[in-house]
């Protein structure tokens, strides 16, 4: 009898865990809302700030190592570095793809919708 009870409990736990797993799948709608929230809140700004810092360091280093390089060329290099980092942040596997699972894990779709609603208000 104890063995049967253990099997029933194990099956019940397995069924419950598979149901909760199915409920936690990242839907296309939730993913789209998370992406929208990231844009609305400018959450990726820290990545852009990092890119800006790296770009400034590259430009500074170029000017120190090669003062003969025209300033326009140094600026173009900086712009290209910034552009590449910005593209990589939203590219497949980039920062956006790494942040979305975190929002999915810690916030329900209703939470995401509520945050989007808040940011659509004057106070947001």
What does this structure look like?
The chain has 124 residues and is mainly alpha-helical. It has one domain (26-119). The chain is built from six helices and no strands. α2 packs across α5 (95-106), α2 packs parallel to α6 (109-119) and α3 runs antiparallel to α4 (71-90). The longest helix has 22 residues, at 2-23. The protein is elongated and about 55 Å long.
Helix/strand layout:
Blueprint: H1 2-23, H2 28-40, H3 45-65, H4 71-90, H5 95-106, H6 109-119
What key phrases describe this protein's structure?
124 residues, mainly alpha, 6 helices, elongated
Query: In one word, what is the shape?
Result: elongated
- Helix tally equals 6
What is the helical fraction, as a range of percent? Answer: over 70%
Approximately how much beta-strand content do the residues carry?
under 5%
Rg over alpha carbons: 24 Å
Computed structural class = mainly alpha
> How many domains would you count in the coordinates?
1
Distance between the termini: 59 Å
The run of helices and strands is: HHHHHH
The largest β sheet comes out as: none
- The number of distinct β-strands equals 0
Low-confidence stretches: 17-22
Mean pLDDT: 80
């Amino acid at each position: 009898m104890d063995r049967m009870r253990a099997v029933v409990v194990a099956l019940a736990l397995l069924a419950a865990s598979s149901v909760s797993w199915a409920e936690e799948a990242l839907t296309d709608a939730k993913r789209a809302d998370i992406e929208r929230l990231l844009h609305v809140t400018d959450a990726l700004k820290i990545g852009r700030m990092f890119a800006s810092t790296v770009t400034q360091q590259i430009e500074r280093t170029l000017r120190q190592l090669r003062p003969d390089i025209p300033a326009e060329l140094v600026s173009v290099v900086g712009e290209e570095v910034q552009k590449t980092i910005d593209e990589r942040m939203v590219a497949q596997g980039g920062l956006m793809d790494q942040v979305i699972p975190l929002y999915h894990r810690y916030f329900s779709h209703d939470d995401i919708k509520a945050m989007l609603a808040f940011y659509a208000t004057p106070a947001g």
